[in-house]
Design brief:
By secondary structure, the protein is an alpha/beta fold. The chain is built from 11 helices and 6 strands.
């Protein structure tokens, strides 16, 4: 399957270089570029990509507002936030509105391409270099009103396997990696996660990851067998 990508960045050089390198992947096609959020929204009226690479800081409509607007109207489109600096608040808000993860612009072409493939296949992608930072950030957010609210009853209903799977999502692992780690099939992992989502009454994998970090599940060592 050909993965359709839209690139949104206000720097022409970045747009062009990303377009060139991504089009070299046999399974990817850049179907458009945009220099601000308003252009992205115009483009989406005509056609929708599978994934949008979204710069956080853009004129008119920034990446955070744009993510929010897109997710309301086109929930299936995956969004990866691109950032050149540690702009915690931007990144956190974009994730809160439904972005699948974020990457620093300096990542290698392979990392970027793998991130795109990961989110298309349903994973959440967070740059491993900044995962500890995200853990810290989310823990701070958990102390205030940014916290993801869950049904307390649902937490008690989670099975041991569901908890383990959720914990791995919080560490940024894909379904395939979780399956390998827990010796389960990918289908079983998928089912466990979707049951956990409905028990906790959460919207998606990113919220599940935030919740796992918030509650401290991620920081604990592996539960003993």
């Amino acid at each position: 399957m050909m993965i359709k990508v839209l690139i949104a960045d206000d720097q022409e050089l970045i747009r062009e270089s990303l377009e060139i390198v991504l089009n070299m992947n046999p399974d990817m096609e850049v179907i458009g570029v945009a220099e601000n959020g308003a252009e992205v929204l115009q483009f989406l009226k005509k056609q929708q990509p599978d994934v949008i690479l979204m710069d956080v800081r853009m004129p008119e409509i920034d990446g955070v507002q744009c993510t929010n607007l897109i997710k309301e109207k086109y929930p299936k489109i995956k969004i990866i936030i691109l950032t050149t600096f540690d702009d915690d608040e931007y990144v956190y808000n974009a994730l809160k509105y439904g972005a699948s993860g974020y990457l620093l612009k300096g990542v290698s072409v392979t990392e970027l391409s793998n991130a795109i493939r990961a989110v298309v296949s349903g994973g959440a992608m967070i740059n491993p270099n900044i995962i500890t930072k995200v853990v810290k950030l989310f823990s701070e957010m958990a102390q205030n009103n940014f916290a993801v609210k869950v049904e307390e009853r649902g937490v008690e209903e989670l099975t041991r396997t569901e908890r383990k799977a959720v914990c791995q999502v919080g560490r940024g692992l894909s379904n395939r990696e979780i399956a390998g780690k827990l010796n389960l099939s990918e289908g079983t992992v998928r089912n466990n996660l979707s049951t956990a989502l409905s028990k906790l009454n959460l919207r998606d994998r990113t919220q599940l990851a935030i919740w796992a970090v918030q509650t401290g599940m991620v920081q604990k060592s592996e539960p003993e067998e």
